[in-house]
Amino acid sequence: MKKTYFPQQFLDKYFALLGEEWEKFFYTIKRKQPKSFWVNTAKASIGETCDSLKAKGIKFENLKFHPNAFSIDLTEPGKLDEYTNSWISVQEKASMMPVVVLGVTKEDYVLDACAAPGMKTIQLSNLAGRVLATDVHSKRMEILNKTIKKFGLKNVEAKRIDFRNLKRNKRFDKILLDAPCSSEGLVRKKREALIDWSQNLVKRKSIEQKQFIVHAFDYLKEGGEMVYSTCTFAPEENEEVVQYLLRERNGSAGKEKFGRAVVVPVVLEGIKIRENKLCASCVRLYPQDNDTQQFFFAKIRKE
């Protein structure tokens, strides 16, 4: 079996950051992640999907944080008829959580700001009234459009645009900003995920993310909520980005013109969430706690 690639700079950084947690963290991220799926209710009900899987003798179990989310004891769930027929999407369980935390309802108009490849777009479509899904890259946009077509997401409008260039008077009830990042969490999915990783990459992504989060916040209606998320563990791309938004929008000038940003506490049934000492109420998912990717998300309200 091929070994997972870890840059020495990555190992040094997280050994220093995690201290006595390092061994459990490193042991977990070297292991393949468990499989999970989301039931796409645009194509089939939860009951239909479960009955179909049970008839095949497949072991699966609901993940308590949402009725549509399931773990599955199968190496390649993407080969199931249920996936071919678009009844399910194969999605890592931490990756499902930002949409669940966002708390979307059928009354909501939602922006999926960096939408491709579209797994979270499926979730949003199932739960929201209308979704605007944007991405700036042509190849990623092709993938997003294929996802929308395959999974029958009729309430989703896809638009190739940098969401920062949407009309300035455009406003949304809810926004998901699953930001492009250094993708450290993907190491449990792809053994070569960290080949291009460097501290310089983290810094470059952080600069971009700070611009993204401020623009996304400004597109919220008053009283609206957004979730900022990444599949990385770097504080530079996570807590520091949220703190940047709080500084930019909670000063006297920013608050009066754009509204006040408040980080909202999060609870997910069946998921261990630790106190975040770097930025209160932000969620940093340690892979060893819930057998997930390393992941981060913060729920933010405009007041």
Describe this structure in words.
The protein has 303 residues and is an alpha/beta fold. The protein has two domains: 8-31 and 92-302, Rossmann fold; 34-91, Sun protein, domain 3 (Alpha-Beta Plaits, 2-Layer Sandwich), CATH 3.30.70.1170. It is 36% helix and 21% strand. It contains eleven helices and twelve strands. It has helices at residues 8-18, 22-29, 46-55, 81-84, 93-102, 119-127, 138-150, 199-218, 239-250, 252-258, 287-290, and strands at 35-39, 60-62, 69-72, 88-90, 109-112, 130-135, 156-160, 172-178, 220-230, 261-264, 283-285, 295-302. The strands form two sheets. Strands 5, 6, 7, 8, 9, 10, 11 and 12 form an eight-stranded mixed beta sheet that branches. Helix 5 (93-102) runs parallel beside helix 6. The mean pLDDT is 96.
List the helices and strands and how they pair.
Blueprint: H1 8-18, H2 22-29, E1 35-39, H3 46-55, E2 60-62, E3 69-72, H4 81-84, E4 88-90, H5 93-102, E5 109-112, H6 119-127, E6 130-135, H7 138-150, E7 156-160, E8 172-178, H8 199-218, E9 220-230, H9 239-250, H10 252-258, E10 261-264, E11 283-285, H11 287-290, E12 295-302
Parallel strand pairs: 5-6, 5-8, 6-7, 8-9
Antiparallel strand pairs: 1-3, 1-4, 2-3, 9-12, 10-12, 11-12
Helix percentage: 25-40%
Report low-confidence residues grouped into runs of 5 or more: none
**Tally of domains:** 2
Q: Per the principal axes of the C-alpha atoms, what is the gross shape? A: globular
The H-and-E topology, N to C, reads as HHEHEEHEHEHEHEEHEHHEEHE
Number of DSSP helical runs? 11
Estimated structural class: alpha/beta
Q: Averaged pLDDT, please?
A: 96
| CATH T-level fold name of the largest domain | Rossmann fold
CATH classification, class level of the largest domain: Alpha Beta
Estimated share of beta-strand residues: 15-25%
Please compute the radius of gyration using only Cα atoms: 19 Å
The largest sheet is: 8 strands, mixed
Please, what is the CATH homologous superfamily of the largest domain? Answer: Vaccinia Virus protein VP39
